[in-house]
User: What shape does this take?
Amino acid sequence: MTSATDRRTRIAVLAAVIVVLIGFVFMRPLADFFEDIAFLLAPSGARAAAFGDMHFGASAAIYDIDRAEYFYQKAAALDPQYPYVYHQLARIEFLKGNFNTAVFYINKQIELHGDTAPSSYYVKGLIEGYMGRYADAAKDYEHYLSLVPPNWAGMNDYAWVLLKAGRAADAVPETQRGLVLFPDNAWLLNTSAIGLFETGKLKEALAHAKAAVEASGKITESQWLTAYPGNDPKVAQEGIATLRKSSEDNMHMIEAALASSPVR
Amino acid sequence: MRHHLHHARVKALDVLREQRFLLVVSVAILALAAVSVIAHPSKFSSAEVKFADASQSGLSIIPASCPSDPHRPGECDPPPIVCPDGSAVPTNGVCPSGCPAPGVLVNGQCVQSCQQNSERSSDLSGGAGNNAGCSCPAGFSAVNGQCVLTSCPSGYTLVNGQCTATSCPAGYTLQGSQCFISACPAGFVLQGGQCVSTQCPAGYTFQNGACVVSSCPSGYALQNGNCVQTSCGSAYFCQGNDLYQNVPSSGGGIDGGQCTATFVQTCAYACTSGQCIGPSAPTVALWSVLPVLVRSSERTTITWQAQNVASCTVTGSNGDSWSGLSGHQISRPIIAQTTYTILCQGLSGAIPPSITRSAIVNIVPIFRER
Assistant: This one.
């Protein structure tokens, strides 16, 4: 009798463990299923956008860019005027590398909301920069910076497209303006080094490049995800590695150029 | 003994079954764990992660995307201003040093501090000592922890710490330290230091700083800068039944611009809107013959009223006859079907010249049995 009871107890415990594991294993698909049910019970643009924001955030557990896109598409279908719906879709397509689609969405966003959403001009400049349309990107960055208080990424990226457009002489004061407010910013220091180098100020360029290497070495995953919102938290270290390597390569190149330059 | 052996065998089988069951469960758990790895979405590597854009000299530019998230505004903005000792700025704006934030006390004076960057190399600003670690905006230089204006943009010169104009753009002249307009574009003239438009509407020309009349409409002539009437056209008008016409006083030409009313004719009937009109058409407003069915020897009643007529005559085929523009008459006894007719003559010149109406009165038939 006692043996049978013990056996039943062991079986019951094992069954409970299995149920928990199944729940854990299939949690995500089940969670998505329950999420879909919850949305279907009360569909609206606002709820769809909220679900999209949740999956587009910096939480590694629920980051899912495809799921985010799915809900933003729902939000756009239910309420095209909902704030930032097309802005978020543009960001997703940009992150996926679908730049033409990203441009379509961000143009739609700007058409609907214009200057009431200044960051949309920033995103447009970013997309255009990645597409190699530097002159257009510069105009959008200029418009963006005219609407908002100075921020380091806006000034850094504006300087980026100026450099690419052959306007290093305009890029240098932009990075200098940024460094007054953000003197230890790795991105600004790196871009400033490049601008100074291309305008013939090798010594100053090397100083900034060294500072950029030092600053990039201190960047944390949290800081990188702040600099690149909407990215999968799992790739933060890869992004930091890109910045560090680029800064170091730049420093070495400037050192070599300075060493071989007749004028120092 | 046999009983014990049997019991031991059963117990062994139970243990074996239990071990098999545990093995099956373990395998199932491992399988589910493997599935879980597949079920969770793998990491997503965006276009930004490894992006580095080569500059014209081959150096790697790294753009960011900090302000792109609309739900996290301000994360890329400058840090809030604090006192030099790192403490928050008090509500009165004065730091513990006694200087307004973000100022510092230097040699007994409060000066605007350079930004916190004490870790950087001193050769960043090209100087040493008190200039070390200071980055000032373009045109400014760090001196003793303060950003001082040292250069001015093109066309300006530094005078007493301020930029003063030394040259002016095209169309302007330098007077003292300010630029004033000296030439106006086409279509404008300089008046009182301002560019005033010389464009005037049709019929006007620009003279002596103002638009004046240069041409007059038809029927008017320019006299002393004003348009004066020179012809009266062919305007007719009525005064009662008399028709008049406006003509120039001397029969035409420029002569003081006066028009005189000239009598044309007295309308035979009436004058309206500058023309003579004829009489209205004759009408029979009321024509009633009731009853139209009577017994033999009974009578009927004839009533009439006419308008815009000279005369009316009412006649019956039984010999009844009356006249007048209106009337109410009783017929003689009706002994057979009788037709009554009204005939009115219109006013002289009316169209049509006359009007007529008729009505028939019948006798009720008498039925006799055979």
User: Anything to note?
Assistant: The radius of gyration of chain B is 59 Å. Chain B touches chain A through 62 residues (CB under 8 Å). The helical segments of chain B are 2-39.
